[in-house]
């Protein structure tokens, strides 16, 4: 049995820039300014973790839930203006993985509404066995909890799971869970520390599944 677990933002969809802009707009509403270098530290973490930290940093009189709602309103505006941007080759990769007998899941720090919307727009409902949100299990990457939970849902041992991640926090979570981790690199963004991953790719078409299966499963 084989399993492949996707992070979503920065792996399936190019959304990190819109999240950064949405965070900046919310913080600006409270009279503060932050740049992309500041928001980069939250890539791969849950909204609750992000806003708990920002509230502490800027002494904002609000709650993580209220600020997440404001952020998502800005994010939805950006999505409506620009549309969801899918990384090239993602749908073909899903097809190739299914053809090789993989069970598939998404394990994302985003909320379930955003995950479901992404899958629906991609028209990929039939490919994924499970969709998992970090908000549901109340643990943020780099804690491995979301990946261990997803492995349990898939009825797989961690060693049977391959993860694809774009962020330092996400890669740390995957490795802490005892899983093989592929680092997905988008060169338009500042480099994340992915020194702990088992291999790196720059495009979904770069993934040699036959070699990957041999490396991880010895088949």
TrEMBL record:
Pfam families: HAD_2. Signal peptide: none annotated. NCBIfam families: HAD-SF-IA-v1, HAD-SF-IA-v3. This is Haloacid dehalogenase superfamily, subfamily IA, variant 3 with third motif having DD or ED/haloacid dehalogenase superfamily, subfamily IA, variant 1 with third motif having Dx(3-4)D or Dx(3-4)E.
């Amino acid at each position: 049995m084989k399993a492949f677990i996707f992070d979503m933002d920065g792996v399936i969809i190019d959304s990190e820039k819109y999240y950064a802009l949405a965070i900046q707009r919310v913080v600006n509403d409270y009279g503060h300014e932050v740049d992309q270098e500041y928001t980069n530290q939250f890539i791969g973490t849950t909204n609750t973790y992000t806003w708990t930290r920002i509230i502490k940093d800027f002494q904002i009189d609000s709650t993580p839930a209220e600020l997440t709602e404001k952020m998502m309103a800005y994010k939805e505006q950006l999505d409506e203006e620009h549309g969801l941007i899918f990384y090239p080759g993602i749908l073909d990769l899903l097809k190739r993985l299914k053809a090789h007998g993989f069970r598939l899941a998404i394990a994302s720090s985003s909320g379930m509404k955003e995950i479901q919307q992404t899958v629906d727009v991609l028209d990929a409902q039939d490919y994924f066995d499970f969709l998992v949100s970090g908000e549901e299990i109340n643990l943020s990457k780099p804690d491995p909890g979301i990946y261990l939970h997803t492995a349990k849902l898939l009825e797989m041992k961690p060693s049977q799971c391959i993860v694809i991640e774009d962020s330092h926090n996400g890669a740390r979570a995957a490795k802490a869970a005892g899983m093989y981790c592929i680092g997905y690199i988008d060169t338009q963004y500042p480099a994340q520390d992915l020194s702990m991953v088992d291999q790196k790719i720059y495009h979904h078409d770069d993934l040699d599944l036959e070699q990957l299966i041999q490396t991880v499963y010895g088949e």
